[in-house]
Description:
Helix content is about 50%, strand content about 15%.
Amino acid sequence: STIKERYESSPGPFVSLEFFPPKTQSGKQNLMARMGRMTALNPLFLTVTWGAGGTTAKKTLELAALAQRELNIPVCMHLTCTNTSREVIDNALKEAHKADIRNILALRGDPPVGEDWDQGSAPSDFKYAVDLVRYIKKEYKDDFCIGVAAYPEGHCEGEADVMDHSSLRDLPFLKEKVDAGADFVITQLFYDVEKFLSFEKLFREQVSSTLPLFPGLMPINSYQLFNRASKLSHASIPASILNRFPSEYHADDNKIRAIGVDVLSEIVETIYERTEGRVKGFHFYTLNLEKAVAQIVTNAPCLAKMFEEEKDDDLVDGIEEIA
Length: 323
Ligand code: FAD
């Protein structure tokens, strides 16, 4: 089924989980086992990333198809379009469809690291993500439920954006993607909950009052990764959060993760309460790790409630095993 259908029929709150395709065959087997355990978290859907420029095309398609076939949870395949020919896009979409994948996260992608990139002359049939949304809608009608990306702190690109680094600049382009037929939106990771809440307000006013909007959250698994991921995605870390990680703990991953679980649980709870039901799904960038996400799900009261109410002992046992 599609994410849109599942979203509309689920009261929430719930989570969704992002994975990336491992490089090796044994890595894939380990990850499938882990994804199987993580179905205990009752995710609404799973997503599989796409290496920019199609570098992981085969592995992405394989993992997405396997998960779709074996886990009984809708899979969403990411797909980037920049520097990509129509043939590559068609092949990916046809393969996905054959594997019963009904959800695509339509992205632009980034230039390969270290390469300068003149968008104007990029040898591609697609320039922006909206071109991919329009293409899928035109050529594949309603075969796919389409998601797009959004940036609560603004999409950062080149020097011009350093001057104008705010979500306001992107909003008309996000609206363009939604008007072109996007069915749901997932945000870039962030740690400043107030920035997300301001963005959500603008989104509701200027883009759509009803479209599913999933905040993207990255659990904190190590201090180094936390800093690196935030820098790479231009996510600011409020001092009130940074201060909770005193330097004597920086090398202790267990300690860092435990503090991170509290931080993320509070972010989830705050968003759920303050958006009064407008946000009912939380998307986790798992980095293919299970522990922290499972701990957040059992720790954030609004998410933990879903299991208490269900009184599903198998699910509760399953979570205890991975948390
Ligand atoms: P777009 O929506 O095309 O926007 C890109 C930039 O162009 C923005 O600054 C926007 O404001 C601007 N823009 C858009 N339209 C116009 C216009 N008409 N005129 C002028 N400017 C315009 N990358 C991967 O390679 N693989 C993945 O699997 C992947 N998954 C992701 C998942 C999520 C949830 C998110 C948030 C990002 C993901 N990315 C992934 C990263 C993404 O590819 C990059 O952030 C990329 O730089 C932007 O992609 P987009 O789809 O948001 O682009």
